[in-house]
């Protein structure tokens, strides 16, 4: 049985994961509007991953006797300024989520909730990958600057991102 404190913290993280999906869908729409289909695809795939993250937490909370409280989701921005700024906002958001997952683990440790500590390890590893992937894109976009041909090459590469899936062993 999960403690009320852990339940509240997980519900807060579920809300953040919902917002992440919402944010990435907004970024996908922004890229569509700016004729960057590869970036649009990359952000749409990121949206799908965030839905998977939210669903994993949602299911975990219910499986451990917790009650899910779906909180209001804030409206994401519509305009991100530039493709580079959209990816910079993505990196900043992933850093925020990493901090939030770490704080969630702190709650699990304080509650002596060993099962949740183990469960959260997957998310901690995932966040390392999330930040590294976005940082690489930001670094490349900064490197090419306003070079249209180089931006198109990056956009083409981002269109190759595989769809988000959940492996059977990840539950």
Note down, in words, how this protein is organized.
It is a single chain. The protein is mainly alpha-helical and 171 residues long. The protein has one domain: Ferritin, core subunit, four-helix bundle (Ferritin, Up-down Bundle). It is 74% helix and 0% strand. Helix 1 (4-33) runs antiparallel to helix 2, helix 2 (37-63) packs parallel to helix 5 (148-158) and helix 3 runs antiparallel to helix 4. The chain is elongated and about 55 Å long.
List its salient traits.
elongated; Ferritin; mainly alpha; 5 helices; 171 residues; single chain; 74% helix
> Briefly, what CATH class?
Mainly Alpha
Unreliable residue runs: none
Number of helices, where a helix is a run of at least 4 consecutive DSSP H or I residues: 5
- Cα-to-Cα separation, first versus last residue: 19 Å
Helical residue percent band: over 70%
* Structural class estimated from helices and strands: mainly alpha
**How is the biggest beta sheet arranged?**
none
Instruction: Name the CATH homologous superfamily.
Output: Ferritin, core subunit, four-helix bundle
Overall, the morphology is elongated
**What integer is the average pLDDT?**
95
- Number of extended strands: 0
Task: Assess the beta-strand content as a share of residues.
Answer: under 5%
Second-tier CATH architecture: Up-down Bundle
Radius of gyration: 17 Å
CATH fold category name: Ferritin
Q: Number of domains in the coordinates?
A: 1
- Compressed to H and E, one letter per element, the order equals HHHHH
